[in-house]
Design brief:
The complex is a heterodimer of chains A (289) and B (260). Chain A is mainly α. With 260 residues, chain B is mainly alpha-helical. Chain B folds into 2 domains: 67 residues, no CATH class; 152 residues, MetI-like (MetI-like fold, Orthogonal Bundle). Chain B is globular, with a radius of gyration of 22 Å. The chains are: A mainly alpha (289), B mainly alpha (260). Chains A and B meet through helix 1, helix 3, helix 4, helix 5 and helix 7 of A and helix 1, helix 3, helix 4, helix 5 and helix 6 of B.
Chain lengths: 289, 260
């Protein structure tokens, strides 16, 4: 054991006690609690009643409104992930391999959105996408359109803003993965007669796969549980599941029902991630990037 | 320029990344009553309105206070865990790593909701700020852990051995040898924890007490009903605060902050 290397702290496990206690009491137990809660009966005047039931789940599966909403949320998540990958990959490649003088600046530009709060970034999109927003006004002033394009209060607006919010989470893992690929592999392939495209498809793409997988899962999970962006951009017209759950809990205090909804969203999300991992033959390892 | 198409493509993506942020900053100098961009003349009037708005000022104070308290707690807990992780964990290393990163890997909405139910179940509720602080500590803990363990990986334990053989006690060795060497990681982690806490939304939204508000929540509430550029002024100040922290730490203190 490496205990000797630590040079003589008598009981080193004591160092872990606060962190383990915190995670156990305030993460593990609450998660067990919410699973139990989802099987409780609704209360009258109280957040939940006595006894257990599976009615909450039956209600969920028998109500096409919620099934549709979960489907819609997954669809927006998948679309956001795909767009992030398509938009982000060339940027990640450029950051990892490009011979530019301004790499530091470019890296800072990719990171900068992460430092600006999510409320502010979504707010910026409302200014841009609104009916009287910058994009519509400009297009109208140029005479390209007569009436404002519906960019906000729909799935399109939510997706545009989500792509913006989560793009750095796609670019950074892919960039790290490409940086880990030895450039001489590429030149070897080229010198053996592979075209630039073949070298990319057979060398870069497979070797950067761990980064692509990590980025995709991160973006997908984050967009499923996003609340602020869909809430501000979607308004009351388009709601994603996370918005419905949070609003239901804040307005009505139906804990068992809210728990069941939140868990169903998370479980379907997790199933999607597992299918994705299976399809892309992912090796499970928390990436160290 | 070698690949002009790729370069232009990347510039467009960078423009896309910056656009909404620049628009907010631009809108904050708008002289008009409504949020239009480009601004109808330049003015600082919305900053004056904002500085005189007690609701926003109180929210900023709450956010700063909350970020400070949770940063201190998560820096201490996270640093201790990182020391164990790098120096003593042995075979359990991967398990500890996943556990410490779990608040980052689990959906924030679900964590927020389960924490809300939990604080009510154990009778604390949202009358006190305990739940709120715990939520912020949980969310910021992974960032401290990542930064401190990164700097510990390059810590040469023979320094520690040398000090020990010279008779230095446990606490002295920690204070005089290890702490100075891992200080960049600790400060970097703490600064990033502070920024994250300052921006956390969902956890605060669920766990805040009645009548209490952090800056992101106040801004969100305001945006649902108001359209004046005051919100843009608030946002711009918030952006300047965060960027200030980062620039000071990276350029002045020469720290390298690990975000992942």
């Amino acid at each position: 054991m490496s205990a000797k290397r630590g040079a003589g702290i008598a009981r080193p496990w004591l160092l872990m006690v606060p962190a383990v206690a915190l995670l156990l009491i305030f993460l593990v137990i609450p998660y067990i609690n919410i699973v139990l809660m989802s099987f409780r009966t609704p209360g009258t005047g109280t957040p939940y009643g006595v006894g257990f039931t599976i009615d909450n789940y039956l209600r969920f599966f028998s109500d096409s409104f919620y099934l549709f909403q979960v489907f819609n949320t997954l669809w927006i998540g998948a679309l956001t992930t795909a767009l992030c990958l398509i938009i982000g990959f060339p940027v990640a490649w450029q950051l990892a391999r490009g011979d530019m003088r301004f790499r530091g600046l470019a890296y800072g530009l990719v990171l900068s959105p992460l430092l600006v709060g999510i409320v502010i970034r979504s707010y910026g999109w409302t200014i841009l996408l609104g009916n009287a927003g910058l994009i519509n006004r400009t297009l109208q002033a140029l005479g390209i359109i007569d009436s404002p394009l519906p960019l906000m209060y729909n799935a399109l607006g939510i997706t545009i803003a989500l792509v913006h919010v989560f793009l750095p989470f796609m670019i950074l893992p892919i960039m790290a993965a490409i940086q880990g690929v030895d450039p001489s592999l590429e030149s070897a392939a080229r010198s053996l007669g592979a075209s630039r495209f073949t070298a990319f498809r057979r060398i870069i793409l497979p070797l950067s796969m761990p980064g692509i997988q990590a980025g995709c899962i991160l973006v997908f999970v984050l967009s499923l549980s996003a609340y602020v962006t869909p809430s501000l951009i979607g308004g009351l017209r388009v709601k994603t599941m996370a918005v419905t759950v949070v609003d239901a809990l804040i307005d009505t205090f139906q804990w068992p029902w809210g728990s069941a909804l939140a868990l169903m969203l998370s479980v379907t999300g997790a199933v999607c991630v597992l299918i994705f991992a299976r399809l892309t033959r992912m090796k499970w390892k928390v990436a160290r990037s | 320029m070698k690949r002009p198409v790729l370069t232009i493509y990347c510039l467009l993506v960078y423009a896309f990344l910056l656009a909404p942020i620049l628009v907010v900053v631009g809108a904050s100098f708008n002289a008009g009553n409504f949020l239009t961009f480009p601004p109808q003349g330049l003015s600082l009037r919305w900053y004056v309105t904002f500085f005189n708005n007690e609701v926003f000022m109180r929210a900023i104070r709450t956010s700063l206070w909350l970020a400070a308290v949770s940063t201190v707690i998560s820096t201490i807990i996270g640093t201790m865990a990182a020391i164990y992780y790098v120096q003593h964990a042995g075979k359990r290393k991967e398990l500890i790593r996943i556990a410490m990163l779990s608040p980052l890997l689990l959906p924030e909405v679900l964590t927020a909701i389960s924490l809300l139910f939990f604080v009510y179940t154990i009778g604390i509720g949202t009358r006190t700020i305990i739940g709120l602080v715990v939520g912020h500590v949980l969310i910021t803990l992974p960032f401290v852990f990542i930064n401190v363990s990164a700097s510990l990986e390059s810590f040469d334990s023979s320094w520690d051995m040398a000090a020990r053989s010279l008779g230095a006690g446990r606490w002295t060795r920690f204070r005089r040898i290890m702490l100075p060497l891992i200080k960049p990681g600790v400060i970097g982690g703490a600064l990033f924890a502070f920024i994250i806490s300052f921006d956390v939304f969902t956890i605060s939204f669920m766990l805040k007490g009645i009548g209490m508000s952090t800056l992101p929540i106040q801004l969100f509430d305001y945006l649902r009903t108001n359209f004046t550029p005051e919100a843009a002024a608030v946002s711009t100040l918030s952006i300047v605060l965060t960027l200030g922290v980062v620039i000071v730490s990276e350029k002045v203190l020469g720290l390298r902050i690990h975000r992942f």
